[in-house]
Amino acid sequence: MDATTTICHRYTPPDQLALFTKTADIIVSAAGVPNLIRADMVKPGAAIIDVGITRVEDPKTSKSYLVGDVDFEKVKEVAGYITPVPGGVGPMTVAMLMRNTIAAAKKTVIYNILDPGAVIYKKASQLKP
C-alpha cells in the first residue's frame, strides 16, 4: 500500500492547506486551532482524526467547553469517518499511556531481578559520586 505523507501546520496558508486536505484520504489534525478544518476542505468519504483540543468560552453563558480542530457538525456530513472532541482520541491516548506505563514497570522489575546493580534503575539518592 503506497501513501504520501504531507505535513502542514497552523501557519500553512489556508488556500495551500485546502489543496492538500481536499485530496487526502486521511486527515490527522493536531494544531489546537478551532475550525481549522472545514467541510469545504475535506474530500468526500475521507477519514478525519481530530487530535486538536482547545477550550473556548460560550459568549452566551460564559462557560467554557472543548472543541477540536475540525468543524465537527459540518465536516461529519462530508467525511466517511470522524472522531469527536471530546471523547475521540483522548480515551485511547489515556489507555495507551496506561499500557505503556505498565509495560515499562514490568521491564524495570525484570531488569532489576536480572541485574540488581544496574545504575539506570537506581534512585539518584542511591548513587555514589
* CATH C-level category of the largest domain: Alpha Beta
Identify the CATH homologous superfamily of the largest domain. Answer: NAD(P)-binding Rossmann-like Domain
Distance between the termini: 54 Å
What does the main sheet amount to?
Answer: 3 strands, parallel
As laid out across the biggest beta sheet, the strand order is 1-2-5
The outline comes out as elongated
Oligomer: single chain
Report the structural category: alpha/beta
Mean pLDDT: 90
Q: What ranges have pLDDT less than 50 throughout 5 or more consecutive residues?
A: none
Q: How many H/I helices?
A: 3
> The CATH topology of the largest domain, please?
Rossmann fold
Order of helices and strands: HEEEEHEH
DSSP E strands, number: 5
Radius of gyration: 21 Å
CATH architecture of the largest domain: 3-Layer(aba) Sandwich
Keywords: Hydrolase, Oxidoreductase
Protein name: Bifunctional methylenetetrahydrofolate dehydrogenase/cyclohydrolase, mitochondrial
GO molecular function: methenyltetrahydrofolate cyclohydrolase activity; methylenetetrahydrofolate dehydrogenase (NADP+) activity
Catalytic activity: (6R)-5,10-methenyltetrahydrofolate + H2O = (6R)-10-formyltetrahydrofolate + H(+)
Describe this structure in words.
The chain is α/β, with parallel strands linked by helices and 129 residues long. It has two domains: 1-86, NAD(P)-binding Rossmann-like Domain (Rossmann fold), CATH 3.40.50; 88-129, no CATH class. The protein is 29% helix and 14% strand. It has a three-stranded parallel beta sheet, with no helix packed on it. A two-stranded antiparallel sheet has the order 3-4. The longest helix has 26 residues, at 89-114. The protein is elongated. The model has no long low-confidence stretch (mean pLDDT 90).
